[in-house]
Design brief:
Blueprint (H helix, E strand, L loop, with lengths): L4 E5 L8 H14 L4 E6 L4 H5 L9 H9 L11 E3 L4 E4 L3 H10 L9 H8 L1 H4 L4 E6 L5 H9 L2 E7 L2 H20 L5 E8 L5 H14 L12 H4 L17 H16 L1
Parallel strand pairs: 1-5, 1-6, 2-4, 2-5, 6-7
Antiparallel strand pairs: 3-4
Helix pairs in contact: 1-11, 3-5, 5-7
The structure holds adenosine-5'-triphosphate (ATP) and magnesium ion (MG).
The site of adenosine-5'-triphosphate (ATP) has 19 residues, from helix 1 and helix 10.
């Protein structure tokens, strides 16, 4: 478990490119020769569906229930290999995730279930250089679990004033988790996403850069229709070799920075 870096991709704001970043950084790290496990930690199943996996019976919530109920299981049966993108993933499932969010209320040490899961299945975690958790858009107990289990949090922030304005609350929650549950947690960095050369984007990027300084990755991600239109069940944008696909090159550069910082 020692050499595996666990990264939670988090922002309570919806639609800021958490899932896009988790997938593309994960696949780009795999391109760099790293072994990568992605975990879909969002009831919306966006990451699972990208990998053509719907309503998976064996999902991350199921694994967490096994921890809560002290049931043994073969964790390998929950891991799916995606050949095209060169990564493994554990899917999410809408109902199970919604149920566990409620059930966790009455569980002792409710924020540590995912951490205990990683500890129990350390032989699986140990196989990977990176475990990347695609978090849901909330500051709820599931996010607490991701932040408690992670070494790092990677924060995608859309180049918009509203997205910028949402960062202090997230950082406050990270600080709470650092103080109370996981002193090893660090902010890996903030990446500006969906940038375009409009005045409002430029202003938002400036505010992010000036406020968070060295926390902000040098790489930022442009808004490009090719990302929004990228077909499901396909290759991650980062695998595109097209010279005009700036976002592919940017996500590869971001993965390089992630690899240096982690
Ligand atoms: N660089 C980009 N250029 C254009 N569209 C993008 C870009 N990055 C992400 N998108 C699109 O923006 C939408 C939101 O992205 P994504 O699902 O990754 O965000 P999210 O933060 O995971 O959302 P949620 O909070 O719902 O989980 C998607 O339709 C995605 O395809
Ligand atoms: Mg998402």
């Amino acid at each position: 478990m020692k050499n595996t870096k666990i990264i939670a991709v988090a922002n309570q704001k919806g639609g800021v490119a958490k899932t896009t970043t988790a997938i593309n950084v994960g696949v780009a790290l795999a391109l760099r020769g790293k072994k990568v496990l992605l975990i879909d930690f969002d009831p919306q199943e966006s990451l699972s569906q990208f990998f053509d996996c719907y309503a998976a019976e064996r999902n991350i919530a199921g694994l967490m229930y096994n921890i809560i109920n002290k049931r043994d299981c073969d964790v390998a049966e929950y891991v799916i290999h995606n050949e095209i993108n060169g990564v493994d993933f554990i899917p999410s499932e809408l109902n199970a995730m919604n149920k566990i969010e409620k059930d966790l209320i009455s569980v002792r040490s409710k924020e540590t279930v995912l951490k205990r899961l990683f500890a129990k299945h350390s032989e699986l975690v140990d196989k990977y250089d990176y475990v990347i958790i695609d978090c849901l858009a909330s500051l709820n107990v599931l996010l607490d679990n991701a932040l408690t289990a992670a070494d790092y949090v990677l924060i995608p922030c859309q180049a918009s004033p509203m997205s910028f304005g949402a960062l202090p609350n997230l950082i406050l929650q990270v600080k709470d988790i650092q103080d109370e549950l996981n002193s090893d947690l660090n902010i890996l960095g903030i990446v500006t996403t969906m940038y375009s050369k409009t005045n409002i984007c430029k202003k938002a990027k400036e505010m992010i850069d000036q406020t968070y300084k060295e926390l902000v990755f040098k790489t930022y991600i442009d808004q490009m229709s090719v990302v929004a239109e990228s077909p499901m069940k396909e290759k991650a944008v980062v695998l595109s070799a097209a010279k005009n696909n700036r976002v592919a090159a940017q996500y590869r550069a971001l993965a390089e920075e992630v690899d240096e910082r982690a």
